[in-house]
Write a structure and sequence with these properties.
The protein starts with 6 loop residues before the first strand and ends with a strand. The strands form three sheets. An eight-stranded parallel barrel has the order 1-2-3-4-5-6-7-8, surrounded by six helices. Helix content is 38%, strand content 13%. The longest helix is centred in the middle third of the chain and has 15 residues, at 350-364. By secondary structure, it is an alpha/beta fold. It has helices spanning 12-20, 27-30, 34-38, 54-60, 64-74, 97-110, 128-136, 161-173, 190-203, 219-229, 250-256, 268-281, 301-304, 308-320, 327-340, 350-364, 372-379, 391-398, 420-426, 434-442, 444-454, 469-483, and strands spanning 7-10, 44-49, 80-84, 114-117, 140-146, 178-183, 208-212, 233-236, 521-524, 529-534, 541-542, 547-553, 556-561, 566-571, 578-579, 584-588.
Length: 589
């Protein structure tokens, strides 16, 4: 029997906890197990990229560059892999070429061996700069095609077999070392997996990797058919961080292929040891685990084709806006928006672009509120969509857009001005190395806030502190006591009775000063978010439609225009503040 071992990329330390635990696993819980993972025999370990850059700096007060250095030292024998969003890097917009080059160079030097690169629109032009930088660093470039559908199965006018084969040929010609089919919503069916992988194996000379989430429940079946068709590599997670919106579990795949020509050669005993460790630390993160449904699969994905991470974002936003009862309206609106925007695959950042626009359309009226990213997208700053943007929507979105009202057709990176010089200048006196500068360049608001935490210029808020197993034990003890009826509310001690004293008659206090908003028009926060910046100051003259502030919500920037002509009379918040829905941000009189 000729052996053709299936290779497995372990995604536990990146996509596993990103999918199940909102990317909250901390480096301190990776350190003890990394050496044992290094011995397992994985083809590679995905440990970085995606949200594992944003979340540590935003919520964990951790330096992602230091995490990568640490893991490389502890797991020197297994190639470390990252997910790179093409010209988006690990952010939510396109960055200038000099940022892309500097980021890839530093990531390669710090410990990344395999760069899995994707573009949300499958626009190969958005790979060019990253690809050159990866090759210059002597690293492996795995180019990815985002798997998407417009119908229940592969086919139709956009995402058919010819579409995927054509993209694959282009990527191979660009110099890809391997190809990944990136099925972020778990949509690929077993028969389509077989058909696609079989055709790709006939067309290409480079290895093929299949990445599919468990969300719909089809991924294990699709993996088996892909393995029959000759797929070279699959992505999977260790059992504690598998299933639900994560990936199929590694352990049953290894056992299923034992003593076959695709035997992985990975020892089950070692996998079980790894799994026991992750079970032991998982309780620390239980607050982030979805517990709102019994089912471990989301059968709704088979109908609405929305990735699990996108669903959780939508639910979170609607909850904060006190509008969760309108989720079905958002589900109805999503395919309309996606069609109007040219059928982008629903993956970061286009999933956020489509998702937040659908939410805004439902809450405020169709295209009455438009995020800066939607404007950038329609203008062409994210690349060429798979289909044409609706001309009427294009007119509405680009009306008054500062770059112009006619979309570009050039590579987006060609129209972006260099950014690194400004980033060096902005971080002068605080950044200690290029990693710090890149952190700021990627996230100017939250990145700078993290650098101040890192170097003790500001105190990190208490919610960034790690939860310990001792904390978990105390929580469990309190819950156990409550269930047993052993917790009683403590009553305050009775005050001694005093003789009545004469009541002094006072004049009624004056009424509070009239709020400025009663004397002018208000600019309100349309949904909860973070103030990125105010574009005006008190005393500035503004006209209807002039931008007053930029609000970050669902990781998108929303421009908030003035509703009237007038003068800025009051600004109620400052840059970096968190705001709730309907908070008054500014007053125009």
């Amino acid at each position: 029997m000729d052996k053709n071992p299936l290779k497995i990329t372990d995604v536990t330390l990146r996509d596993g906890h990103q999918s199940l635990l909102a990317t909250r696993m901390r480096t301190e819980d990776m350190v003890p197990i990394a050496p044992d993972m290094d011995k397992a025999g994985f083809y590679s370990m995905e440990v970085w990229g995606g949200a594992t850059f944003d979340v540590p700096t935003r919520f964990l007060n951790e330096d992602p560059w230091q995490r990568l250095r640490t893991l490389k030292k502890l797991a020197p024998n297994t190639p470390l892999q990252m997910l790179l969003r093409g010209q988006n890097l690990v952010g939510y917009r396109h960055y200038a070429d000099d940022v892309v080059e500097a980021f890839v160079e530093h990531a390669a030097r710090t410990g990344i061996d395999i760069f899995r690169v994707f573009d949300a629109l499958n626009d190969e032009r958005n790979f060019q700069t990253a690809m050159k930088a990866i090759k210059k660093a002597g690293k492996h470039a795995q180019l990815s095609i985002c798997y998407s559908l417009t119908e229940r199965k592969m086919g139709g006018p956009v995402f058919n077999l010819d579409y995927y084969l054509q993209k694959a040929r282009i990527f191979q010609e660009m110099g890809a070392d391997s190809l990944c089919i990136k099925d972020m919503a778990g949509l690929i069916s077993p028969d389509d997996a077989y058909t696609l992988i079989k055709a790709l194996k006939q067309e290409l000379k480079i290895p093929i990797n299949l990445h599919s989430h468990y969300t719909s429940g089809m991924a294990p079946m699709s993996f088996i058919k892909a393995i029959e068709a000759g797929v070279d590599i699959i992505d999977a997670a260790l059992a504690p961080f598998a299933l639900r919106t994560s990936h199929p579990a590694i352990e049953p795949i290894v056992v299923a292929l034992q003593d076959t020509e695709r035997d992985t050669g990975i020892e089950l005993k070692q996998l079980l040891k790894l799994g026991q460790y992750f079970e032991s630390i998982a309780p620390k993160y239980r607050d982030f685990k979805a517990t709102n449904k019994m089912s471990v699969i989301d059968t709704g994905v088979l109908m609405h084709q929305v990735p699990g991470g996108m669903i959780s974002n939508l639910v979170s936003q609607l909850k904060e806006a006190n509008a969760l009862d309108r989720i079905d309206e958002v589900y109805e609106e999503l395919p309309k928006v996606r069609k109007e925007l040219g059928y982008p695959p629903l993956v970061t950042p286009t999933s956020q672009i489509v998702g937040i626009q659908a939410v805004q359309n439902v809450l405020f009226g169709r295209y009455k509120v438009i995020s800066a990213q939607v404007k950038d997208y329609v203008y062409g700053l994210y690349g060429q969509p798979p289909a044409e943007v609706d001309p009427e929507i294009q007119k509405i979105v680009l009306k008054g857009y500062d770059r112009g009202e006619t979309p570009i057709t050039a590579r987006p990176g060609d129209v972006l001005e260099p950014e690194m010089e400004a980033a060096f200048k902005a971080t002068e006196g605080i950044a200690k190395d290029i990693g710090d500068v890149l952190t700021y360049a990627l996230y100017p608001t939250t990145g700078m806030r993290f650098l101040k935490w890192k170097y003790g210029l500001e105190e990190a808020p208490p919610e960034t502190k790690a939860k310990t197993m001792e904390d978990i034990k105390r929580e469990d003890e309190i819950v156990a006591k409550a269930k047993a009826g052993l917790l009683a509310e403590k009553q305050p001690a009775a005050e001694p009775v005093k003789a009545a004293e004469p009541v002094e008659t006072k004049a009624a206090p004056p009424p509070p000063p009239v709020e400025a908003e009663s004397e002018g028009a208000t600019v309100l926060a349309p949904m909860p978010g973070l103030i990125i910046r105010f574009e005006v100051k008190v005393g500035d003259k503004v006209k209807v439609g002039d931008n007053i502030a930029v609000l970050e919500a669902m990781k998108m920037a929303i421009d908030l225009p003035s509703p009237v002509d007038g003068t800025v009379k009051a600004i109620k918040f400052k840059d970096g503040d968190n705001v709730a829905r309907d908070d008054v941000l500014a007053v125009i009189a």
